[in-house]
Write a structure and sequence with these properties.
The protein is α/β, with parallel strands linked by helices. The protein has ten helices and eight strands. It has two domains: about 140 residues, HAD superfamily/HAD-like (Rossmann fold), CATH 3.40.50.1000; about 60 residues, DNA polymerase, domain 1, CATH 1.10.150.240. Helix 1 packs across helix 4 and helix 3 packs across helix 4. The mean pLDDT is about 95.
Length: about 220
């Protein structure tokens, strides 16, 4: 029996798209405006995964919460245009999504990135992919790894969570899948350390071209 799921939920940053350049540009512009030190992309890479407020917190760890709020506001202002700087699908992703769509597998996106940016990026970079749901973070909604919104997607699809594969590049995505009762698949081309991903016990792939063969492979115990 193969692993082909009845639907797939994808994380966005670090999974479907390389968004680090635009994030780093916007973050550093916001920090500069506040008179704070900036960071190399390699450092910003480690800040990504828990939403924009935590991104700013990690970039300015010695500032109080109101200061982080101010940095986040500036980050949003800058990211409105900066996200276009270097943001692109990872190699093989478009073909993967097109193939899954042709196979009739419903696809969704669930990100901790603010919802308006999530919508804009998906629309700009994947205009031909008919995602059933595209969800970013919205005010008063729980962030990953809270499973509530992943379960909302399952309800929309009218599928049990166990039939929906959750694909992401971080331990936050693994925890979200686990909390939602969805099988996880992790990828290491994004923004999280491979060893930490492997330590979860979930499958970890290193190329988008490996995903279809993985889904079509038999279970080891069948």
């Amino acid at each position: 029996m193969s692993r082909v799921p009845r639907a797939i939920i994808f994380d966005l940053d670090g999974t479907l798209v390389e968004s680090l350049p635009g994030i780093a540009t916007a973050l550093n512009r916001a920090l500069t405006a506040q008179g704070l030190p900036t960071h190399e992309e390699s450092a910003v890479r480690r800040f990504i995964g828990n939403g924009s407020w935590m991104l700013c917190r990690r970039a300015a760890p010695n500032r109080d919460d109101p200061s982080i709020d101010a940095i986040e506001t500036l980050f949003f202002q800058e990211y409105t245009t900066a996200w276009r700087e270097g943001t692109h699908p990872f190699p093989g992703i478009v073909l993967l999504l097109e193939t899954l769509t042709a196979q009739g597998i419903p696809l969704a996106v669930f990100s901790n990135k603010p919802h308006p940016f999530t919508i804009d990026i998906v629309a700009a970079l994947f205009p031909t992919i008919p995602f059933t749901t595209v969800l970013g973070h919205q005010p008063d909604a729980p962030r990953k790894p809270d499973p509530a919104r992943a379960l909302e997607i399952a309800a929309t699809l009218q599928l049990p969570p166990a039939d929906i594969l959750f694909v992401g590049d971080s331990t936050v995505d693994f925890e979200t899948a686990h909390n939602a009762g969805m099988p996880p698949l992790l990828v290491d081309w994004g923004y999280h350390d491979h060893a930490a991903l492997a330590a979860t016990g979930a499958p970890v792939l290193s190329s988008a071209h490996q995903i279809l063969p993985f889904l079509q492979a038999p279970h080891p115990n069948t």
